[in-house]
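Hi V.,

You were right to ask for the full record rather than a summary. Here it is.
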Amino acid sequence: MIVNNKAVMKLRHLSVGYFVKGHPTPLLKDINLDINPGEVVCLLGQNGVGKSTLLRTIAGLQPPLSGEVLLVNQPVQAYSIQELATKVSLVLTEKVGGGNLSVEELVALGRHPYTNWLGLLSKEDRAAVNEAVALTKINYLLNKKVGELSDGQYQKAMIARAVAQDGDLMILDEPTAFLDLNNSVEIFMLLRQLALEKEKAIVVSTHDFHLAMEFADRLWLTNFNSPLVEGLPEDLALNGQLEESLYHEGFGFDLLNGRVLLPTKEGKTFSLFGNSQAHNWTKRALERHGYLPGDANATIKLTIETEGNATSWVVADQRFLSLESLLNFLPGHKGK
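Predicted structure:
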């Protein structure tokens, strides 16, 4: 067995869950993983499978049912609360108190494990707070009260606090749950930057499959009554484990393009002619409406024509100047 001496955290035969009337009820069992510096790990799985329980356990907030969580080769329970706070920073989904604090004061709380008994910030503490604010781009929120923040603003402020805390391991439970697309991408770009430039080990649970595939170095895939599976996103896609994890009776998984496939109706096929940027967008639109790619005998035969910035779609003798008008023309479309 290869020993990984670089790992920030090691999980050994770890089982997590809860107790019911004194009896253990495991959610995830016998997990053996290493969390390495400089890596972004994305934890994926359905609601209720045990993702948050796993994160809370490795953060030291609740004991494991069995097995070990080793932080720098020591059991996480061996650390005092203050020692643990200098090594692990945590962002949970639920809101904490402190609505009357300013955002600047909230971010500064990330430096609390490093301050003296008076709680005074040193020059280094101030620099860490300023850097966290700059990285998360929340300068404009500093004087606002935490209770006045939107959900998305609050989440970014909490991430800034975790950045200021400057632990070797950052754990985030659905940090983009309340953010729009632009802010979600910004957060994942920030996490990637922290991993690459500051050698942080980052574990983040998310339901955003596409962002996980784009930004994660490793995936942890969880499913009900199944062992946790981990690996590079591309390896998991190629060996079929990603598709198996995402399996659902109502839809499939496109291995080639890394996206969800909606159900199709038997006999509805299309063929596309014409090499243009519109090809992929047309294919996506048709597949979303239940058509499958076909051959020369396809139900719908489309030719895509472009002239400058203008695109048109030709079916038989009819020409359409937008995908919407094309889809409305097709048999069985709801807009027809």
